Amino acid sequence: MSCWMPGCPALRMCRGLASLPITCLERAKDLKTRLGILLHKPELGHGIGTSSKLQLGSRQRDSSREVLEWRESFDQLLKSKSGVNAFHTFLKTEFSEENLDFWLACEDFKKTRSKTKLASKANRIFEEFVQSEAPREVNIDHETREITRKNLSGATSTCFNEAQAKTRTLMEKDSYPRFLKSASYQDMTKQASSRGTSKRSHT
Predict the structure, then answer these.
(1) Residues 6+ positions from 25 with CB-CB distance below 8 Å
(2) What residue spans define the domains of the chain?
(3) Sign of dihedral through CA atoms 152, 125, 117, 75?
(4) How far is CA 91 from the centre of its chain?
């Protein structure tokens, strides 16, 4: 709509635009064009959303299967990173997470190749978890503790094997069954099962 009356809003706007530098006007037009292209291509956004949903659905199916596998055996639980995390959270509620932390420290220790690092790591693990009155002392018998102490004199990747095995057995026979019966794991299995049922109903 055009208007040539003095004080007309449209006229004031036109004069205001005319006073702007050409580069500003060109940038505004360019921006408008780009916005128009994006607004008229809804299929672009739809494609991205669909891809994300597919990937998310795939991850959910994988995690659901994984959660249900944890109850098959303690080994299955320990093989899963998210399973170890869930078990660790449960052990914290029982104030016994040091058993799993020790087991994980031993697994990491076995991967050490440097003899110098092997010795320093061995001493650090022993002082933190194994020696009597250690800050995070694990529940092993006196004999196993002494065997481990002697192993430190010539530290090898196997020097914690016996103590690690005892701790693993303790977790498998004691903490693991309670974890499977815990409210947190029961909730996880229900969610995993419902996702599996939902998937089958849509196929």
Answers:
(1) 17
(2) 58-191
(3) positive
(4) 18
Tell me the angle at which helices 81-93 and 97-110 cross, rounded to the nearest 10 degrees: 150
Residue linked to tokens 């299995």: 189
Separation of alpha carbons 49 and 41, rounded Å: 14
Rounded to 5°, angle at Cα 130 from 129 and 131: 115
Cβ-contact 86, 185 below 8 angstroms:
yes
Distance between CA 132 and CA 140 in Å, rounded? Answer: 10
- How do the pLDDT tens digits run along the chain, 203 residues long? 444 445 555 445 445 545 555 554 455 555 555 545 444 444 333 333 433 333 334 455 658 999 999 999 999 999 999 999 999 999 999 999 999 999 999 999 999 999 889 999 999 999 999 999 999 999 999 999 999 999 999 889 999 999 999 999 999 999 999 999 999 999 999 999 887 655 554 44
CATH classification code of 58-191? 1.10.167.10
